[in-house]
Amino acid sequence: MHSRQPAEMRLSRNPATHGRFFSLAALGMPVLALLAGCPSADKSGAGSARSCPPDCDQPKIPPGVPAFQVVKDSATGPADGQDVTIRVVLKQKTKRDQIYPALHFLYRYAMTRNPTEPRNFVGEFYASDTDAAAGNGQVAKVFRQQADKGPKCENAIKLELPEQVERAFAHSLNRGDVEDLEDTCHLNEKKKVARFDDKFTHKPTYTVDLGGKSVEVRYPYIETGKDEYVKTLSFNAAMTYWAEFMSTMFEKAPELQQINYLGMLDEQPVLKIAVTRQEYDSKLTTVQETIASFAAITFAKIGLHKLTDKAAQKEQEAHKTKTYTNALSFLPKDHVFISPRLKKSS
Predict the structure, then answer these.
(1) Fewer C-beta neighbours within 10 Å, C or N terminus of the chain?
(2) What is the block-wise mean pLDDT of the chain (346 residues), using blocks of 10 residues?
(3) Which of helix, strand or coil describes residue 301?
(4) Nearest one of 237, 233, 246, 253 to 279, comparing CA atoms
């Protein structure tokens, strides 16, 4: 994990490189002093238009920032303490993660175009002129109130299916990014942390079928910390990963309609299971919860000296086998393949 600087300690950069902008309020430096020299927000015709609409100033948007058109630019209050609202319409379809450079740029533009920063600022983003005119269907917003140390953002753009699956897949492997609630504008640059298995030959992979709204997951059963397949594999161990992918991906990819899971051993599938969302929602949502609940019960029995560790382990494995077998019984037989190599606990 990389360290994050407090918001009040961050410095500004050129937005032409998807810039970052920050406040040095805690150091006694006004934001304007930091941003005034920033060349990214073209100030030709700077200052809110006298009547916008129809006569709206249009900032020069740098490469790498989604283009937008200003359709409303209003300011109330004295010149040294204005409340400013800028409403813009995106000129192209913009994905969720792509909107942040535009939020950054509009904020910097509003903060630096006049000698004095606005007291309060709101920048509203819309997908169409109709929505903007009505003030409905806002897709994103950047704002800062007088008491705020820096900008805050809201992003209502939905992830598309490939993005949903990508994030869900990462979470299935415990590699998903956790949203930083203190950095709603995504100002902190996320550095990729190298993993020991980045160069492994055998890695979990996925393929998205947009037409069928499905995903095929291939998971290699390898030794912990090694790029080689396990020598032996039990039914329960193989099914554990299937259950994790199934629950996490259906929960975190709401548009996903089917998961085709292939558990690989020695380059051959030893487990093939296809599950639709309807099957998951109706019968399979509690698989992991059922196993976890039973594990808690056996753990309590150990604490009360009613079971030995060995007996508790045997009970848990038998319960897992029963739970997984019962789960598979709800699926069509041609949607399930279990290799004889996978041994079940009795």
Answers:
(1) N
(2) 38 36 35 37 50 90 97 93 96 96 97 94 97 95 95 97 96 86 89 84 97 98 95 96 97 97 97 98 95 85 77 88 96 97 81
(3) helix
(4) 246
Alpha-carbon distance of 284 to 275, in angstroms, equals 9
Tell me the pTM.
Answer: 0.77
User: In which element (H, E) is residue 144 found?
Assistant: strand 140-144
Which residue type, as a one-letter code, is found at position 292?
A
Can you tell me whether residue 224 is helix, strand or coil? coil
For 274, the token pair is 């296809």
Spell out the residues 6+ positions from residue 185 whose beta carbon is closer than 8 angstroms to its own. 100, 103, 104, 107, 142, 150, 151, 152, 153
Residue identified by tokens 């090694």 is 226
Dihedral of CA atoms 221, 226, 228, 233 in degrees, nearest 10, equals: -40
How far from the centroid of its chain's Cα atoms is residue 190's Cα? 13
The one-letter amino acid code at 294 reads F
Can you tell me the distance from the alpha carbon of 285 to that of 270, in angstroms, rounded to the nearest whole number?
Answer: 23
Cα gap 262→260, rounded to integer Å: 7
